[in-house]
Amino acid sequence: MENKEGLPQRTYCRPLFAYDADDGDGHGVAGVTDMFDVAERQLCAALSAMPEGTPGIIRLVILDNRLTGPEYRYLGVVARLWRDGAGGGAAAEDNQVVRER
């Protein structure tokens, strides 16, 4: 849909959360959801099966469909997680707060 100037019309895009982790050997997980808690749960579950120290991130994204086709626009990292060998789970750091998961 175009506006009166002939440019693609901007539409409201609900914020999404993209998560990913890679253990460096080609094994990893990636996904997108509209709920931060779901992204965090999925990433923690994946990290618990990966080697100690494996990093993961959650980024804020929007789906931009104004140009040739839908494309994710990454707006920034909202959480960093990693595989914690001590407890066998994942540790998370977001906004200077570290908490165990």
Low-confidence stretches: 95-101
DSSP helix count? 1
The ordered H/E elements are: EEHEEEE
Please tell me what the overall shape is.
Answer: elongated
Main beta-sheet strand count, sense and barrel state: 6 strands, antiparallel
The radius of gyration computed from the alpha-carbon positions, rounded to a whole number of angstroms, is 17 Å
Provide the β-strand percentage band: 35-45%
Give the end-to-end Cα distance, rounded to a whole number of Å. 44 Å
Please provide the count of β strands: 6
Class from secondary-structure proportions: mainly beta
Helix content: 10-25%
Strand order of the largest sheet: 2-1-3-4-5-6
User: What is the average of the pLDDT values?
Assistant: 79
Q: Count the domains.
A: 1
Task: Give your account of this protein's structure.
The chain has one domain (16-100). The chain is mainly beta. The termini are far apart. The protein has 1 helix and 6 strands, in the order ββαββββ. Helix content is 12%, strand content 45%. A 6-stranded antiparallel sheet has the order 2-1-3-4-5-6, covered by helices on one side. The chain is elongated, with a radius of gyration of 17 Å.
Summarize the structure.
The chain has 101 residues and is mainly beta. The protein has one domain.
Characteristic key phrases:
101 residues; mainly beta; 6-stranded antiparallel sheet; 1 helix; elongated; disordered C terminus
Topology:
Elements: E1 16-22, E2 28-33, H1 36-47, E3 55-64, E4 71-83, E5 90-94, E6 97-100
Antiparallel strand pairs: 1-2, 1-3, 3-4, 4-5, 5-6
